[in-house]
User: Fold Trafficking protein particle complex subunit from Calcarius ornatus.
Amino acid sequence: MAIFSVYVVNKAGGLIYQLDHYAPRSDTEKTFSFPLDLVLRPHDERVVVAFGQRDGIRVGHAVLAINGAEVNGRFTADGKDVLEFLGNPANYPVSIRFGRHRLSSNEKLMLASMFHSLFAIGSQLSPEVGSSGIEMLETDTFKLHCFQTLTGIKFMVLADPRQTGIDALLRKIYEIYSDFALKNPFYSLEMPIRCELFDQNLKLALEAAEKAGPFGPGS
Assistant:
């Protein structure tokens, strides 16, 4: 069981804090000879596998590195187009690392804003007055849990579907936010949280949740 990440979104929908706590390893690196037995396509400024899933390489995985050097979107470390480089027989054999692409800061900001809008839509669609909005989204690989405070701040946790104690963890994070962000004289409401004590105590809470599940008395 694991907790993957934590997001804090202000009442306007802006991302004010994000922590990647644990990322499952999905990278696969292999050495290929020409011709490449995978079909690659450009997608969202990166090169992804469109066909040829095998040996841990899945459709949708992006090219992350070539010959040990990280790629920059659709370009190699030395500025060459990835698809052109891999289409040249002179560059083989070649080592390619595939995996799920890492979200950029801008993508995280955009996703936080999108969830804020979905949360509001969920509240409006509810047949009951005063709905709390979306509290959980479930997939086969993770669950997104959300807790909104009375002031509109949203705390979101992405965790393994089997992880227990998330409701208590969300409230613990709110407590940490109140103690180490709101009581910090240098912190401004609705602004990004940059507080070392907040970081330290949040990480301790995540580790405790992973090990023990629900929080016990006095935690």
Q: What stands out?
A: Residues 214-219 have pLDDT under 50 and may be disordered. The longest strand covers residues 3-9. The first helix runs from residue 82 to 86. Residues 27-99 form a domain with the Pdz3 Domain fold (CATH 2.30.42.40).
